[in-house]
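Minutes, project check-in
Item: structure for the 514-residue chain
Input as provided by the requester:
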Amino acid sequence: MAGNHDHLIDISPDASLVSGTVAGAAAGVAAGRGGGGGGDEAKQKWLRKLTSATVNSAVLRDLISRTPMLWYLGERSGTILRPRTRRARVAALHAVRAVAIGPFHRRDAGLAFPDDAKLPFLRYLQDQCGLDVDGYVAALATQRGRLRDEFADDGAEDEEAVVATLDDEERFLEMLLLDSCFLLVVSMMLSKAGAGDDDADSVMRAACISKEYFILHMAVAQHTDDIKLDMLVLENQVPFAAVKLLAAFCGSLKLRHSVEELVLGCFDDICPKRARRAGDVAAGEFYHVLHLFHWSRVPKNKYNVLSTPLKLLRIKKESERLFPCYMELRRSAVWFRQAPPSSGGGDLDMWFWRHPASPVAVMSVPCLHIHDYSAAVLHNLVAFEKHFYWAHGACVTAHVARMEGLVRCPPDAAMLRRRGVLATTRRTDAELVALFRELGEETVGARLPDEYGEMLDAVARHRRRRVSCWCGGFVLHFFPSPWVAVSLAAAAALIVVPSMLQTVYTVLSYFKSS
């Protein structure tokens, strides 16, 4: 500012000008009031509208609702909704297979458990668990407004049918009653958290098994996998508060664990594996089953999205903004190792470590098991984070973005299989590339956490080092596989060992003759 003092503009008003202007304005206002005041008042309505406190509050509320980063200041939007992405290939991954939970798939045909098939689950809770139906429905009615707000309206073709179900009190309460009963009974049947090992639990379970329970259990067992996947569809949910309230109104129901642990026990065999301990579940409040599943699979206090990662903004080259593939990292002397299961990060946490004095870097990646259902589960987790990243982070989105970069061609997938990073028996290397490419399309334009930007920045700085590129190129050229090193060691042994033995025998014979 020292060199720009000649360019400063004095904006302080002159006293004489101000007094004259104010006096003239006052005279004009007085003349207007004495004359045609009614016309002037009509002309001044627009000014009163612009300065209205009510209008200002309404605009601020609208800005808060359209700004995800200000979620803590406004009313929470719907948490059960159809994903924004409705492409033809992805729509099939959000379809239900066995049971419709919530209003969006109520009219789907061919489901194994329509509304009529859910009535025995309600009756079972009445007879075996002492469910107070009247009290439960009355409690739902008192919280109807809050529960209704959990469902977001959209502009789909069946919007009228969905809105009719949500706005009609009787149909809305019936939906919550039947779906909550189904979820609770199915969780009791499929959860491993409710199975005891001692004799007392075995006797209690044997006493509770009746003809109705046996029929329901066999019917559920035929569609176990489909039911579990349907419970993890973003638009196929009911508020988890309704399920917890149902368990509270079952007077004879004695659970050894919380309702959250009971539901999570259904997904112990679903990948990705858990990253949270059982004792942490009591501290959370969950929207629905998918939210609970997402919470259990992501590391604690990591991958939160506060803004655009600063490290990502510092990367100048566009090529460095893309996560490099496996072969590119190997050419830069990056060694891969499988993260131990006891690391506590689950299947969705990666680490990159480098030392300034070492040309070699290490990337620790947990083993990701790919099954037939993996695409559907990952798509729904990414869809959940895309809508609620501001409150629950973007761990799955970041991991999918990194894996899409690592697995860019079939040789990358083959090498990652050998390293134990990818595990699958039903997909070829080309199918794995197509899977992560399709998942990666869902991450385009998504907010990514600071951990992603920091790892990308560290990888880019490592790849710019000439000594790392030279070391990686040397190893790939002369030791492209472990067998080359073994063969070289064997050849060296065949050459060196006989020569050493010959030298030893010559020396021994010399000393013996002398």
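Outcome recorded: The mean pLDDT is 81.
No further action items on this chain.
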